[in-house]
Amino acid sequence: LVLVAHHLVVDGVSWRILLPDLQSACEAAAAGRTPELDPVATSFKQWATLLTDQATSDRRASESDAWIELSRVPDVVLGKRGLDAAVDTAGTMAGAVGTRR
Predict the structure, then answer these.
(1) Whole-angstrom distance, CA of residue 63 vs CA of residue 80
(2) I need a labelling partner for 96 at 20 to 30 A (CA). Which of 76, 83, 88, 90 fits?
């Protein structure tokens, strides 16, 4: 079995969760057995509820001043100059790859 999926479909963390189940199902099918996966420990609904509870908790609300302060810090310039919208585009990138070091 070859499985190809773009990173926009499945992220790296999810692969670590999905691959053992996929391997188990493939091995069972190859042996002529019906795949039986372990039950899900946390449902999406339960996870979403817990996430909402966290987001509205006093602990998270008390962090808001720190996050606001972080958002006021100017962006760090990467490289020797700031970004130039006329030059730093996907179209000009292909010509620059391998030409500058």
Answers:
(1) 34
(2) 76
3, 22 contact by CB (below 8 A): yes
Which residues fall within 8 angstroms of residue 35, CB to CB, at 6 or more apart? 24, 25, 28, 29
26 Rama sector, left if φ>0, alpha if ψ -120 to 50, beta otherwise: alpha
**Exposed, middle or buried, 22 (CB in 10 Å: 0-12/13-18/19+)?**
middle
CA–CA separation, 79 and 69 (whole Å): 25
Residues 5-62: tens digit of each pLDDT: 887 888 888 888 888 999 999 999 999 999 998 888 889 999 999 999 999 999 999 9
Side chain identity, residue 27: E
Token output for 52: 């909402």
Residue type at 74 in one-letter notation: P
| Global pTM value | 0.43
- The CA distance from 97 to 65, in Å, is 41
